[in-house]
Amino acid sequence: MTASRPNSPVSPPRELFTGQVGFILAAIGSAVGLGNIWRFPGVAYENGGGAFLIPYIVALLTAGIPILLLDYAIGHRFRGSAPTALRRLGGARAGRLMEGLGWFQVAIAFVIGLYYTVVIAWALSYFVFSFDLRWGDDPAGFFVGDYLRVSDPGLSLDFVPGVLIPLAVVWIATIVVLGLGVAKGIQRANVIFLPLLLVGFLALVIRALFLDGAAEGLNALFTPDFAALANPDVWIAAYSQIFFSLSIAFGIMITYSSYRRRRSNLTAPALVVAFANSSFEILAGIGVFATLGFFAVQQGVAVGDLEGLTGVALSFITFPAIVSEMPGGPIFGALFFGSLVMAGFTSLLSVLQVVSAGFQEKLGVSPRGAAATIGGISAVLSVLLFSTTSGLIALDTVDHYVNNIGIVASAVLMTVLVIGVLRRGAELRGHLSAVSTFAVGRAWTILVGVLAPAVLAYMLVTRVVALVTGGYEGYPSEYLTIVGWGSLLFIVVAAVVLSAIPWRRSPDDLAPWPSPAQLPSTPEASTR
Fold this sequence. Notes:
The chain has 528 residues and is mainly alpha-helical. It has helices at 20-31, 34-38, 40-46, 53-78, 82-129, 139-147, 161-179, 182-209, 214-222, 232-245, 252-257, 267-299, 311-325, 329-363, 367-386, 391-421, 425-435, 442-470, 477-500. It has one domain (26-503): Up-down Bundle (Amino acid/polyamine transporter I). Helix 5 crosses helix 19. The longest helix has 48 residues, at 82-129. InterPro entries: Na/ntran_symport, SNS_sf.
């Protein structure tokens, strides 16, 4: 790094992961989250079964891994959180604009953190409930009525103690880990929880495979419907699943890769992270549908006739009902909900580190100070918005709008601006090739700059049109305007306001390494 500007405080040394293994575990921990367990199996089943793996793999190779590499290249080359790295990438020409995009990503992560924490709190409660099967004979009624006490759409201040207490526990744990920093906090948490998650979930899957009816469930999931491949919506579903499950294009991997040493392999770890994430999704599909096959046999119906095959309903209604009927149910339930807690917690850390890192660099505060301040504010808002009787509907609404519009818009803007407008594709491709074990070809630029934004733009437009014309889940239009569209408005306003705040230290004093003159002129020039 060059000397700092006059009257600009010297930046402290940047935190770093201890090595490649620590980074890979943290990146996998971010990617493997709640959606791997409760979203992928249902999406695959509804979109061609075994045939869905074809568009899924195509999406992984043409969009997932290329955008993951884009995030890695930006963060590693420009050494900062999303606002810092994107500002440096934009340079004198478009630094302010790109910084605004970075803060847009930070604001998205902030909002996601508010409600993601609540789902982990639910899972923590259900981990305890598993031991005495507290949901009884009516898991749906228990979840919606006894546990969450769900009210009509609106904004309520009627707090639910059963949610509030575990939510406070999750926030305290999160603030402590973030305050310990990258190596001692985030990396160490992933080193502990990721192996536990893998062992626990493998035990769950193995148990599920020996249940009566497991084969029927697996046949329902993997029997291919090749006719579905002619449906464009199936391909969009595949790209959507890959995009959301890899934690790309909203600041997480930019931030994480900025904590790697200058001389660090980027391309090989990207493949490890991407395929580890997909492998866990397939493992989750096996476990979930083997269990659903057992439940279908017990109910005397086909797997396709079951309700609640994805999302919140699968995890907190269908699975408790299954646990109540199976031999050794309490242990199975504890493994399932324990896995949800661990998968969710490692992903939550990555989401909130995006926010923490942005404020650390903008305001010049320590990791501990940022964790305490940002975590404290987030915890209060999370409790006020999502631990009340209106929390479930608010969570469902905010999640749908932020994921389907906010994150997708962020990805479209980043790929178009970085590759199409600023023309930094060759530089970033050269950076990846210069520091990694294998080079990145020109096809990468085409995938990131043309194919990915085209697919994502189509997803964005279709979902905006659907929400404008059809609303969401039958909720009142006034409610959707305030909570759904209001969340997106908050993200945009936050990005504008945060961009206008002066920097405590100049973010522009950076000499990227390798220098432009040291980058290979073509990917093929790198023979490492």
